[in-house]
């Protein structure tokens, strides 16, 4: 036989076989090519979840930073500026040395030492910080041309502050100068005043103001210019408001008034203050840079401020400047108010974050479970053919990481671009946690499923599988954790949790989630029992749909716990979050209602014009205007020798006012309660205010407790008297807020006392501008809507509400996704079942009913369980939750503490949505299966 050189037979066609071992196809590439849709779905899920997880801490940082900036901006520079001051130089120094200590060069040196002592994160705003010398005790200026409101001479402070020209522009004249060296004996100096000071004190350019001297002739201060501040609200001017505008002072003894103003000397004219009795002092004012600090720096800011007030910073300043230097600021109180507000809001946001995060984690686990179930046969075969468990898990980890890691990085990058200017580390940690969970979920699931080598498994439906001991121990552990969290929240509340910090806070924030977890585990345990009970009676029913659907529901996979956990957690979080948001809105509405007494309020310190009620009723949007007269300083006493009790006496028209009280649910009463009786209760009211007629009154609880039902006298501010008898007790009344009150028929008052001082307005859309035009000047117009808007002042509130709403919405979206994943997992088996049943004569309508009835037990279980769990969580946790911080942000608001209450819509709407989605998916699946036909679903060898 003829052969070739390479050993092949002659005439053999085809390529020569390559020498060497065969190279197997790469596992990861092969798996990705085999299931590209599943890989793409996993990538989208991881990218979306990583983006949301990374966005949450950055969004929280952004609204907290905005809240800190708003808090610092709202506080006046006088409160936020750190002020250092030192008395006049030591008297043991020579006169020349003392004068040199008050010159700008020495003050500048001290200013540099002060700035060097400021520790980060506190940063000084050098453009608004200042230093100088001033008289701490203003002295009289007896010049006749100066303003004297009550004949008393004004008092002036001499201030030599740096950089006057940089912070003002001349309105007339020029800036003051110190051409020759100024000393304590200089007879005349130049000064400027601001436009407000000049206008108020009648000062002009060229005016000469004489200031008393100390053991010398009076100092002549010549006004060379009138200046206008460039930034009148900046710290340069507002750290010491007197240099910008004068202040009117009233003497407590005789009520006389006088003005106090400031004369602005040249920066180098400070030594002249030593020749005045005004007690000169040096000062350095450090204005903080409010644009740089973040909420994460608050603790560091508080430490830096404390160091400057009474710590190492002040010690360094005393060492380098003057041993008697002292410091004062209210910046620490401003920071403390922000911290308290944030501590009251943060636990509520954490509840929503933990809820949404739990649902998202469950969805990722369900997605991995769906992949593990889809590849159960493949992995079992690999294990049966000798594949080691670590090797299989490593390959699963690699193929998952190839998809999840880039997707997580993409989600993180999108978040960093969409939510800028926040901390980077927390976002990376959140996205990394999502990515790691997505990578390890499938390998861990496969490890538990394929520990032992087996090809076929037994039944795993919930009606046959019995819980293991490990599962029982795990469920009991979760039960203990949930009980501890609920007990901690009920006992301490979110305020204590927010202030304590640590893992206890996280446990409290997890309380609603743990309640949902317990409910899910309990329902999964109880779910088989009614199915077993109903299986027998359902078999005796006519027709095949009902018994078959019940049997199918009973044979659902035992892995129902995860989708049920996702649904219950989402429903509990949605109910809890919806109730929180509803409670916040209700608290604001109630506080605004108590503050105004109606939809609108027009009030004056004097009697309103007679024609005003008519004009107001004709204004657009006003439905009714109820007049009332309020005497806020009425004195109630029993007997002439007893001490009086201050109370607000409200004169009303019983009919309209009673109807208003009932409509607003503010101490409603029938009109007959206030019908006045005559002397001794025999009828009629004289209307003279003589005090002889006994007038029925509605009283606040404290007045009712003190005076009982016996008649007593009330003296009004116009010295008229009325004798009243308490006929009813109400906690609140529309006309008065946070005061003890007596409500009487104003026909029983004198004509003067009965004149209305306020109008209570009702209407759906009150026009504030139109009402103010109709009311004219001298009256206060307040609208309930405007007061309510004022309660939403800090970005901490609005930001927390947006985050809470977004978290609840994200949790709901993931819950729907969990429901879809659960239905998709059972879709192949259901499709095959419908195909087989149709070959036996099942109609399409019956097929639709079968799928709907099969999915209803679990959906109904989740809906009812979610509503009950949400209700239980709210009832259990409400005593420990205080919504006041997020509702009114620490502002003065009547109505007391805002507590969490059950919101029916938040309970029912999400539960009904679960039923609608489950039914819709079942109908869609039945429709799609009918379109595909039965042949494809009945292929031989199909494992379904």
Write a compact overview of the structure shown:
This protein is an alpha+beta fold and 944 residues long.
Structure characterization notes:
With about 950 residues, the protein is of the alpha+beta class. The protein contains 29 helices and 21 strands. Strands 1, 2, 3, 4, 5, 6, 7, 8, 9, 10, 11 and 12 form a twelve-stranded mixed beta sheet that branches. Strands 14-15-19-16-18-17 form a six-stranded mixed barrel. Strand 7 (about 210) and strand 8 (about 220-230) form a beta hairpin. Mean pLDDT is about 80; it is low at about 1-20, about 495-505 and about 680-690.
Secondary-structure blueprint:
Elements: H1 27-34, H2 36-74, H3 77-80, E1 82-87, H4 95-101, H5 104-116, E2 130-135, E3 139-140, E4 155-161, E5 168-173, E6 188-194, H6 195-201, E7 208-211, E8 219-229, H7 235-238, E9 247-250, E10 257-265, E11 280-286, H8 298-310, H9 312-320, E12 326-328, H10 331-374, H11 376-384, H12 389-418, H13 425-449, H14 469-500, H15 503-509, H16 511-526, H17 528-539, H18 545-554, H19 561-596, E13 600-603, H20 612-617, E14 624-637, E15 645-652, H21 654-664, E16 694-699, H22 701-707, E17 712-715, E18 721-729, E19 741-745, H23 751-754, E20 758-762, H24 768-775, E21 780-783, H25 784-791, H26 795-839, H27 844-877, H28 884-888, H29 904-932
Parallel strand pairs: 4-10, 6-8, 15-19, 16-18
Antiparallel strand pairs: 1-11, 1-12, 2-4, 2-11, 3-4, 5-8, 6-10, 7-8, 9-10, 13-20, 13-21, 14-15, 14-17, 14-20, 16-19, 17-18
How much of the sequence lies in strands comes to 5-15%
- Oligomeric status of the shown chains? single chain
**Mean pLDDT rating:** 81
Largest sheet: 12 strands, mixed
Supply the helix-strand structural class. Answer: alpha+beta
- Number-wise, the strands total 21
Gross geometry: flat
Rg from Cα: 40 Å
User: How many helix segments?
Assistant: 29
Distance between the termini: 56 Å
Helix percentage: 40-55%
Poorly predicted tracts of residues: 1-19, 497-503, 678-691
């Amino acid at each position: 036989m003829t052969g070739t050189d390479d050993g092949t037979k002659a005439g053999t066609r085809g390529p020569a076989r390559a020498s060497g071992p065969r190279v197997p196809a790469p596992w990861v590439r092969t798996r990705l090519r085999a299931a590209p849709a599943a890989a793409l779905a996993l990538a989208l899920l991881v990218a979306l979840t990583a983006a949301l997880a990374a966005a949450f801490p950055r969004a929280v940082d952004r609204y907290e930073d905005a809240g800190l900036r708003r808090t610092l901006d709202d506080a006046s520079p006088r409160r936020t500026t750190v002020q250092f001051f030192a008395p006049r130089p030591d008297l043991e120094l020579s006169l020349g040395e003392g004068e040199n200590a008050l010159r700008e060069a020495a003050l500048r040196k001290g200013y540099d030492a002060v700035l060097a002592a400021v520790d980060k994160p506190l940063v000084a705003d050098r453009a608004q910080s200042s230093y100088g010398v001033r008289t701490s005790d203003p002295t009289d200026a007896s010049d006749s041309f100066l303003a004297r409101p009550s004949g008393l001479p004004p008092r002036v402070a001499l201030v030599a502050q740096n950089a006057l020209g940089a912070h003002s522009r001349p309105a007339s004249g020029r800036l003051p100068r110190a051409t020759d060296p100024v000393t304590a004996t200089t007879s005349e100096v130049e000064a400027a005043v601001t436009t407000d000071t000049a206008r108020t004190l009648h000062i002009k350019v060229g005016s000469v103001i004489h200031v008393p001297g100390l053991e010398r002739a009076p100092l002549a201060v010549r006004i060379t210019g009138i200046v206008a501040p460039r930034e009148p609200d900046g710290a340069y001017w507002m750290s010491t408001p007197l240099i910008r505008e004068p202040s009117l002072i009233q003497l407590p003894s005789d009520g006389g008034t006088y003005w106090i103003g400031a004369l602005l000397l040249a920066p180098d004219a400070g030594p002249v203050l030593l020749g005045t009795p005004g007690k000169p002092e040096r000062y350095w004012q450090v204005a903080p840079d409010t644009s740089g600090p973040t909420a994460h720096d608050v603790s560091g800011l508080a430490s830096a401020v404390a160091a400057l007030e009474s710590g190492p910073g002040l010690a360094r300043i005393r060492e380098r400047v003057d041993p008697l230097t002292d410091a004062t600021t209210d910046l620490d109180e401003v920071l403390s108010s922000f911290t308290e507000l944030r501590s009251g809001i943060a636990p509520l946001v954490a509840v929503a974050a933990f809820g949404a995060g739990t649902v998202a984690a469950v969805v990722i686990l369900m997605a991995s479970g769906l992949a593990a179930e889809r590849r159960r046969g493949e992995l079992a075969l690999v294990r049966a053919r000798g594949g080691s468990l670590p090797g299989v898990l490593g390959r699963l980890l690699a193929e998952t990481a190839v998809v999840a890691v880039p997707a997580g990085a993409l989600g993180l990058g999108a978040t960093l671009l969409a939510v800028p200017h926040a901390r980077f580390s927390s976002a990376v940690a959140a996205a990394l946690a999502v990515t790691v969970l997505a990578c390890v979920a499938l390998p861990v699931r496969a490890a538990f499923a394929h520990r032992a080598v087996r090809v076929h498994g037994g039944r795993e439906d919930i009606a046959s599988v019995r819980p293991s001991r490990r599962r029982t121990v795990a469920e009991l552990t979760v039960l203990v954790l949930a009980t501890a969290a609920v007990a901690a929240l009920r006992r301490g509340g979110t305020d204590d949790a927010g202030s304590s910090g640590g893992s206890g806070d996280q446990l409290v924030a997890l309380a609603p989630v743990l309640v949902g977890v317990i409910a899910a585990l309990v329902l999964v345990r109880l779910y088989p029992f009614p199915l077993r009970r109903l299986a027998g009676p359902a078999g005796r029913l006519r027709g095949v749909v009902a018994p078959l659907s019940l049997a199918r529901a009973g044979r659902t996979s035992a892995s129902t716990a995860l989708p049920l956990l996702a649904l219950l957690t989402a429903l509990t979080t949605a109910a809890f979050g919806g109730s929180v948001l509803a409670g916040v809105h209700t608290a604001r509405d109630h506080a605004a209602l108590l503050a105004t007494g109606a939809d609108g309020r027009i009030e004056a310190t004097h009697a309103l014009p007679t024609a005003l009620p008519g004009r107001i009723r004709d204004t657009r949007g006003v439905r009714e205007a109820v007049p009332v007269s309020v005497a806020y300083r009425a004195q109630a006493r029993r007997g002439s020798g007893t001490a009086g009790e201050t109370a607000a006496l409200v004169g009303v028209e019983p009919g309209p006012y009673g109807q208003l009280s009932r409509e607003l649910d503010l101490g409603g009463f029938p009109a007959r309660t206030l019908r006045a009786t005559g002397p001794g209760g025999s009828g009629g009211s004289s209307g003279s205010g003589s005090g002889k007629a006994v007038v029925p009154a509605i009283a606040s609880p404290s007045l009712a407790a003190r005076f009982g039902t016996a008649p007593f006298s009330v003296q009004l501010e116009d010295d008229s008297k009325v004798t009243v008898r308490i006929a009813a007790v109400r906690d609140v009344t529309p006309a008065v807020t946070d005061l003890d009150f007596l409500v009487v028929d104003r026909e029983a008052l004198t004509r003067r006392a009965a004149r209305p001082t306020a109008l209570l307005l009702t209407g759906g859309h009150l026009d504030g501008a139109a009402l103010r035009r109709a009311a004219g000047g001298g009256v206060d117009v307040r609208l309930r809507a405007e007061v309510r808007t004022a309660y939403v002042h800090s970005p901490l509130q609005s930001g927390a509400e947006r985050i809470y709403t977004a978290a609840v919405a994200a949790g709901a979206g993931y819950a729907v996704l969990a429901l879809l994943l659960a239905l998709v997992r059972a879709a192949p088996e259901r499709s095959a079942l419908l195909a087989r049943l149709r070959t036996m004569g099942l109609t399409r309508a019956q097929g639709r009913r079968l799928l709907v009835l099969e999915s209803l037990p679990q959906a109904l279980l989740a809906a009812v369980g979610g509503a009950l769990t949400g209700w239980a969580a709210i009832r259990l946790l409400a005593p420990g939750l205080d919504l006041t911080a997020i509702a009114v942000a620490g502002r003065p608001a009547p109505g007391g503490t805002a507590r969490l209450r059950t919101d029916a819509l938040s309970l029912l709407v999400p539960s009904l949505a679960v039923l609608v989605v489950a039914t819709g998916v079942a109908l869609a699946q039945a429709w799609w299966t009918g379109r595909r036909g039965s042949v494809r679903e009945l292929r031989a060898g199909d494992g379904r």
